[in-house]
């Protein structure tokens, strides 16, 4: 099974036309909107058919884990066939989503988008580091009974933590510094926030954050605090201006007028998948 999760300010969708004759019947007509939600774009695969109960259990657990990370109370299950080229039988896929819906309703407000329909949708991603995540998983075949301790086979691996020995380029130093600077600003503004590891994704630096919920309206305050911290500690040099492609990094450098670009932390606070 493959899922793509989006932590969204809202999603709005509307069923337009049946994708096949056996599409789900009795659906709600018109537009449906869910605010402040975790959207789970989902594709059930052929390999999942041998253990439907097991894949439902794993699917539900993955959703609960991510919902806890982003403090989501509203869940939207959204069938999305485009995630895989090895799709399961439609009836089985519909069954998986319906059973997951029932299992999640004890702790969440759950909305399930119609199965087997072409749908128009609009979504607004919150844009924090955990707002877009993907998972791929399956379960061992043919267990007689599925229990909470059943063997689960991961299709992605949790690697042990190791320090990277790669020498950073000058622009990478600037980027990773800015990311940590924003993490520090968030930590000062939200003392309960937890700061995790940092890395690069498509040339952008990011820092994993947890136990904090950041909205678009919070960003100006975070930027202001980051500027204050940079000015206070002297993090950037105006000599580095030719290397700075981001307007905010340039503002930091001009504000600080200091002598080094890499002796502290920082980089632009951008979505991990931007």
Protein described:
There is one protein chain. The chain has 274 residues and is an alpha+beta fold. The protein folds into 2 domains: 2-154, D-tyrosyl-trna(Tyr) Deacylase, Chain: A (3-Layer(bba) Sandwich); 170-256, 2-Layer Sandwich (Threonyl-tRNA Synthetase, Chain A, domain 2), CATH 3.30.980.10. Helix content is 29%, strand content 27%. The protein has 5 helices and 9 strands. The strands form 2 sheets. Strands 1, 2, 3, 4, 5, 6 and 7 form a 7-stranded mixed sheet that branches. Residues 142-159 and 256-274 have low confidence and may be disordered.
Q: How many separate structural domains?
A: 2
CATH architecture level-2 label of the largest domain: 3-Layer(bba) Sandwich
What Rg is obtained from the alpha carbons, in whole angstroms? 22 Å
Mean pLDDT: 80
Provide the low-confidence segments as ranges: 142-159, 256-274
Distance between the termini: 24 Å
Tell me the CATH topology of the largest domain. D-tyrosyl-trna(Tyr) Deacylase, Chain: A
Helical content band: 25-40%
The CATH superfamily of the largest domain is identified as D-tyrosyl-tRNA(Tyr) deacylase
Globally, the shape reads elongated
The topology string of helices and strands comes to EEHEHEEEEHEEHH
Number of strands: 9
CATH class of the largest domain: Alpha Beta
Portion in strands: 25-35%
Please report the number of helical segments.
5
Which structural class fits the helix and strand makeup?
A: alpha+beta
How does the major sheet shape up?
A: 7 strands, mixed
